Design the sequence.
């Protein structure tokens, strides 16, 4: 119990420091939430209460804002975030195949995380690289003109990198 | 001294631009070459990425499809020995393989994109940057600026095409201590990347346009609302803002006048509806992005209740050009009611995908065949989808249609912000309508019942049609729902959500009928309506399809014709992809 309280305090303390570092304007809710997500990869419940006091907006309203915007997550994501583009150009060039190959390879559906915590699979409306359709992004890297082989190769690369990280 | 420019827009980066840039840096250092290396934005030819341009005093050479392993040869031959690698060059004084891509374009908004280094304010200034605002502050009154913009005929490039000059006039007329300027860079249409490219390639032109607008309506504070999905655009804007603050172009008493103005960036958080102006303002204020009733219009009561002028990225980027070159020159371009140029993001089943800027009045065929080089893989041109989820499909038979706000509206589509997706015979129009409706249905904010529930019902009908369960009367039901959603929704999202469905019914009704009555998808795209068949004459019995089939539906001995068991077949198409003899066909 005590540990939990300490953890919680640490969490909030960390966030406070973060805000000071970013010279945050107090009073703007969405940038605050974006900061929180930047720090933790998602928005922890405790932080919602903390922000609520900070900006004087009820937690329920903040929850409403969080769930309205696609960017915010209430659950932690996997180590690597795979974003599949579902833009029009990707759609007509086979985005469905990309999704089904990824689902087969990872054994998860959209908005799920693999059991080993390595990958989270999400789709986005358009990544704006329509000339390379169909595309996906793994973290900040873009993979274009995809087919089943290219997707498998891209995933393999990440698995190998993960392993290397463990070994060294 | 030679100057090396590497295209580092999002398209260039995805094609490996950064690695190429670093390789050049390495080589230049290692070999001690006297050359300047810089980055630039999107040059428009996304289909030729990664692009590298090498300039000297007399000439420029554009290399296409550069990869890291090509850098060494370019450095050795071109930089060290002055022998350009001709085979890899697509544009120079003597070579131009992409003439038709460039010939039909007129660059106003994209005047600096892919030409200057977007992180260098000196390069923007060298091309006449910030001259327009200087000129305006010195020689124009607010009314005079507005008069120039009104006379130029510039219409809002965000989609609806409202006259910019009139909008500014309304802003100026409001009496208020505080007024705001907003730049709408929440480019949410799937398949559109014009605004992103402008912000990445030439952020200063947008900022200068905002400054001119601020002076015109009497505002001293501005916001740029950018999608969070555009990290590079945000980064380049931040750099640009820092530069103009340092130079004193933002802040108090700009250029020694009594004009004060500052701009900050607001990052969107992922909601398509926030492209609607009242929803956008709600989002800046920190609330859920839900549109509200207009009037009062933003020009009367906008951000935090103050008069606010909202324009889109492309609109602002036009403004400095009009001031510098005069409204008469802008008026020379375009059609009777749509002046100037329009930037399109050309994508889909087309040979040359990229960013193009064309004078209004150009025909669809000219864009598809002359600029775009025709359809990929020699398939048949079927239609263009224009205007994203709010737009519609214009069939190939109307290819001579002139691109202009009113002409496009007359087809049932809308100009929109400039996404232009080319479709070929393998695109199923019912599936495409379903795709867009799925998008709008997910993005509906939920305020208006018709938009929230009506789009859901329409989607369900389209789903059952594409699954082979369509019923007689479904088309009429779709039309009925569409008309009701259109008239009973508050904002543009709901009012235009049915457009993709209505235009596909209007021009491709026979495809709907084929799905509903014959249970066939003519484009062989809807999985439930495809039957895979083995062509006996072509099947050599190699068992490749048997291995590919996840349900064990295909049987047959080696070197004997294989057979598909339709009770087991789940129509996934893996056998079709696996067969190298084309012995499996779709029916």
Sequence:
């Amino acid at each position: 119990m005590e540990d939990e309280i300490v953890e919680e305090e640490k969490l909030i303390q960390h966030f406070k420091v973060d805000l000071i570092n970013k010279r945050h304007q107090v009073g703007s809710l969405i940038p605050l939430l974006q900061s929180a997500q930047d720090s933790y990869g998602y928005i922890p419940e405790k932080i919602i209460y903390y922000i609520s006091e900070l900006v004087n907006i009820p937690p329920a309203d903040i929850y409403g804002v969080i769930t309205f915007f696609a960017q915010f997550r209430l659950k932690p994501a996997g180590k690597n975030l795979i974003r599949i583009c579902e833009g029009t150009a990707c759609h007509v060039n086979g985005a469905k195949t990309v999704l089904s190959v990824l689902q087969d390879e990872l054994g998860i559906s959209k908005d799920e995380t693999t059991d080993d915590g390595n990958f989270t699979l999400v789709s986005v409306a358009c990544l704006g690289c329509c000339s390379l359709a169909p595309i996906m992004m793994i973290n900040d890297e873009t993979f274009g003109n995809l087919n089943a082989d290219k997707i498998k190769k891209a995933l393999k690369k990440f698995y190998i990198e993960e392993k290397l990280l463990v070994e060294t | 001294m030679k100057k090396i420019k590497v295209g580092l827009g999002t398209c260039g980066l995805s094609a490996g631009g950064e690695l190429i840039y670093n390789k050049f840096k390495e080589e230049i250092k290692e070999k001690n070459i006297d050359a300047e290396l810089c980055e630039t934005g999107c040059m428009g030819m996304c289909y030729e990425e990664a692009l590298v341009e090498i300039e000297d005093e007399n000439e420029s050479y554009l290399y296409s499809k550069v990869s890291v392993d090509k850098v060494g040869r370019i450095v050795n031959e071109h930089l060290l020995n002055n022998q350009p690698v001709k085979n890899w060059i697509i544009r120079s004084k003597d070579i131009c393989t992409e003439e038709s891509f460039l010939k039909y374009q007129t660059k106003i908004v994209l005047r600096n994109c892919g030409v200057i280094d977007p992180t260098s304010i000196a390069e923007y200034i060298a091309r006449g940057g910030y001259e327009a605002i200087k000129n305006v502050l010195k020689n124009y009154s607010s009314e005079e600026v507005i008069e120039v913009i009104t006379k130029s005929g510039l219409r809002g490039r965000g989609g609806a095409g409202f006259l910019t000059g009139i909008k500014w006039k309304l802003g100026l007329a409001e009496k208020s201590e505080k007024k705001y300027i907003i730049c709408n860079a929440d480019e949410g249409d799937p398949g559109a990347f014009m605004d992103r490219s402008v912000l990445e390639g030439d952020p200063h032109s947008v900022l200068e346009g905002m400054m001119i607008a601020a002076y015109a309506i009497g505002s001293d504070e501005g916001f740029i609302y950018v999608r969070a999905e555009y990290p590079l655009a945000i980064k380049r804007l931040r750099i640009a803002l820092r530069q103009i603050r340092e130079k004193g172009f933002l802040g108090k008493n700009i250029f020694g006048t009594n004009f004060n103005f500052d701009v900050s960036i607001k990052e969107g958080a992922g909601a398509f509806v926030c492209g609607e102006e009242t929803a956008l303002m709600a989002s800046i204020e920190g609330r859920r992005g839900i549109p509200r009733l207009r009037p009062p219009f933003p020009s009367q009561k906008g951000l935090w209740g103050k008069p606010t002028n909202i324009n889109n990225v492309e609109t602002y980027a036009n403004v400095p050009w009009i001031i510098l070159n005069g409204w008469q020159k802008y008026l020379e371009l375009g059609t009777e009611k749509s002046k100037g140029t329009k930037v399109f993001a050309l994508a889909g089943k087309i040979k040359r995908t990229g960013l193009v800027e064309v004078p209004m009045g150009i025909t669809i065929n000219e864009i598809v065949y002359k600029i775009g080089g025709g359809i990929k893989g020699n398939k048949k041109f079927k239609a263009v989808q224009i205007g994203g989820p709010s737009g519609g499909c214009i069939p190939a038979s109307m290819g001579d249609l002139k691109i202009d706000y009113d002409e496009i509206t007359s087809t049932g589509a809308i100009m929109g912000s400039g996404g232009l997706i080319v479709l070929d015979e393998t695109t199923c129009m019912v599936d495409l309508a379903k795709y867009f409706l799925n998008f709008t249905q997910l993005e509906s904010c939920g305020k208006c019942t018709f938009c929230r529930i009506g789009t859901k019902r329409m989607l369900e009908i389209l789903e059952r049609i594409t699954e082979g369960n369509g019923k007689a009367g479904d088309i009429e039901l779709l039309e009925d729902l569409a008309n009701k959603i259109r008239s009973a929704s508050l904002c543009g999202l709901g009012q235009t959500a049915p457009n993709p469905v209505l235009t596909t019914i209007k021009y491709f009704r026979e495809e709907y009928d084929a799905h509903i009555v014959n249970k066939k998808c003519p484009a062989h795209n809807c999985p439930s309506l495809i039957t895979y068949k083995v062509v006996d004459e072509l099947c050599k019995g190699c068992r490749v399809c048997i291995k590919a089939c996840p349900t064990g539906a295909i049987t047959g001995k080696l070197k004997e014709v294989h057979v598909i068991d339709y009770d087991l077949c789940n129509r996934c198409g893996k056998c079709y992809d696996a067969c190298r003899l084309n012995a499996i066909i779709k029916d």
